[in-house]
Design a protein that fits this description.
By secondary structure, the protein is α+β, with helices and mostly antiparallel strands. The chain has one domain. The chain has eight helices and 13 strands. The strands form four sheets. It has a five-stranded mixed beta sheet with strand order 1-2-5-4-3. The longest helix has 34 residues. The relative contact order is 0.14.
């Protein structure tokens, strides 16, 4: 799938300068994807910690079971979380490809369903997806009518990590809110404790005409559902997501990624408590 700034530009009918094309794919399927990018004229641009060729580096990641994230902190991609837009625990690796005219594509290898990775982004304005069948904006009213983005899964140390990415969207004209206004909570878009899914009535869906040969593949983007959880009046928003249906490979990828994510979040929460207690003790 396509997400990031390009998907946002598609809905806004605008262009952001120096914006990469961010693509997301299960790590097990990335070899074919990256080799196709090379076939159409994009050259693999390895990071310092990556192998010289794309195939060699892909094999490195597969051998380490997708666990290598050595270059995540130095990657200068469009919206990587930490420098970053998304939870690095969801991501096996990020590969950069560049054409002779300077156009860039980023291939993000996901451990869980690519659509679920998008739900881990820093805020609502970047939760947009383009597939071979349609473009989906998950929070269109807030993003395009109110020109606002709501931070998600953000508090303490995590909130600090988002600052670089969030600042970019402030410059692009968005009002950034750390909490959802009370009057918005009753709307379908932010129906707290009411499940949503990609393609539901609150999603802006723009169909894309198919010009390929043969039968078009099914668009399974709607297989991901989520709840928005508020941790108290005037507090922060959190997303819990799960697949509505998927094949066996997707189920395995989702469950493995979910367990790794929960473990990482647990560590970060414990560290946040330790830091907070340390602050209180020195006051």
């Amino acid at each position: 799938i396509i997400s990031g700034s390009v998907a946002l530009q598609f809905f806004k009918r605008t262009t952001y300068e120096d914006s990469d094309l961010d693509t997301y794919c299960l790590v097990s399927k990335c070899l074919e994807m990256g080799e196709w990018y090379e076939h159409i004229g994009y050259m693999f641009k390895p990071a310092v910690t990556q192998e010289a060729t794309y195939k060699e580096d892909y094999e490195r990641v597969i051998k380490s079971e997708g666990a290598s994230r050595r270059n995540m902190g130095t990657n200068e991609g469009d919206d990587i979380r930490g420098a970053t837009q998304y939870r690095s625990i969801d991501i096996a690796e990020v590969w950069n490809f560049e054409r002779s005219d300077g156009r860039r594509i980023q291939l993000v290898a996901t451990r869980i369903l690519p659509e679920a990775t998008v739900l881990g982004f820093h805020s609502t304005c970047v939760m947009n997806i383009i597939t071979h069948r349609a473009a989906y904006s998950l929070f269109p009213r807030t993003t395009f009518k109110r020109k606002t983005t709501i931070l998600v899964n953000a508090r303490g140390r995590l909130l600090q990590r988002y600052e670089r990415a969030v600042q970019k969207y402030r410059h692009r004209g968005f009002v950034v809110k750390t909490r959802t206004p009370h009057e918005w909570i009753v709307e379908d878009e932010f129906g707290f404790a009411v499940p949503r899914w990609i393609g539901d009535r609150s999603t802006w869906v723009h169909k894309i005409e198919y010009f390929g040969k043969g039968k078009v593949n099914t668009d399974n983007t709607y297989r991901v559902s989520w709840d928005i959880i508020n941790d108290g009046p005037g507090r922060h928003n959190f997303m819990e997501y799960e697949p509505l249906f998927t094949g066996e490979e997707g189920k395995v990828a989702y469950e493995e990624g979910r367990q790794m994510l929960l473990s990482q979040m647990e560590k970060e929460i414990v560290q946040e408590v330790i830091d907070t207690e340390g602050t209180f003790q020195t006051m």
